[in-house]
């Protein structure tokens, strides 16, 4: 085949062109990357509850954190597989989103002061027991987060906590 291609330039160009065309067609129909059809507006969404998306980034970040936590308890990979981590993480994200949405519908809010106090008290943003802005910014960068995203997630965590407490008090 190589001898034929070396002697016949037209044949070489034709074969290489055909191979390139087939590769391009494959990417056009199968798409590049994962996360859905970008033209549908649903790219990177693993679930949607009442129009509120759960992004693939949020899913993988939560999954990685849970995997690290479980890995400390179960060093055996087979035991971890039995836990159905991906399914459990997705279910917990859906449950969490539903509770946060219920809190918002019930008028429960998190004030800027509550959010700020929570950030100031987080030990991994402190140096010598005092909040350090540089550590805060560097930590967010290392976790591929911007302050707005982190604060929105923290606000949702606080809403979740408030709503969970309210549910517990009501049940009791």
Global Rg = 25 Å
DSSP strand content = 5-15%
**Euclidean distance between termini CA atoms:** 80 Å
Work out the helix count: 8
- Uncertain spans, ≥5 residues at pLDDT below 50? 31-41
What general outline do the C-alpha atoms trace?
extended
Question: Which class do the helix and strand fractions yield?
Answer: mainly alpha
Q: What do you see in this structure?
A:
This protein has eight helices and four strands, in the order H-H-E-E-H-H-H-H-E-E-H-H. The chain has helices at 2-7, 9-30, 56-73, 77-82, 85-105, 112-121, 133-142, 147-171; strands spanning 45-49, 52-55, 126-127, 130-131. The chain has a two-stranded antiparallel sheet. It has a two-stranded antiparallel ribbon with strand order 3-4. Helix 3 packs across helix 5 and helix 5 (85-105) crosses helix 8. Mean pLDDT is 81; it is low at 31-41.
Summarize the structure.
With 172 residues, the protein is mostly helical.
Task: Note the topology.
Blueprint: H1 2-7, H2 9-30, E1 45-49, E2 52-55, H3 56-73, H4 77-82, H5 85-105, H6 112-121, E3 126-127, E4 130-131, H7 133-142, H8 147-171
Antiparallel strand pairs: 1-2, 3-4
Helix pairs in contact: 3-5, 5-8
């Amino acid at each position: 085949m190589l001898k034929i291609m070396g002697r016949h330039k037209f044949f070489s160009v034709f074969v290489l062109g055909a191979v390139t065309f087939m590769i391009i067609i494959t990417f056009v129909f199968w798409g590049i990357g994962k996360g859905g059809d970008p033209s549908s507006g649903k790219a990177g969404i693993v679930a949607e509850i009442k129009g509120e998306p759960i992004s693939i980034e949020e899913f993988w970040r939560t999954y990685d954190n849970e995997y690290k936590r479980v890995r400390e308890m179960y060093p055996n990979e087979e035991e971890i597989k039995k836990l159905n981590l991906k399914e459990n993480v997705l279910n917990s994200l859906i449950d969490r989103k539903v509770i946060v949405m219920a809190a918002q519908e019930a008028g429960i809010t998190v004030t800027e002061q509550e959010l700020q106090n929570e950030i100031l008290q987080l030990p991994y943003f402190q140096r010598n027991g005092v909040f350090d802005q540089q550590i805060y910014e560097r930590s967010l960068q290392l976790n591929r987060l911007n302050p707005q995203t982190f604060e929105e997630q923290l606000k949702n965590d606080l809403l979740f906590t408030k709503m969970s407490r309210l549910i517990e008090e009501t049940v009791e």
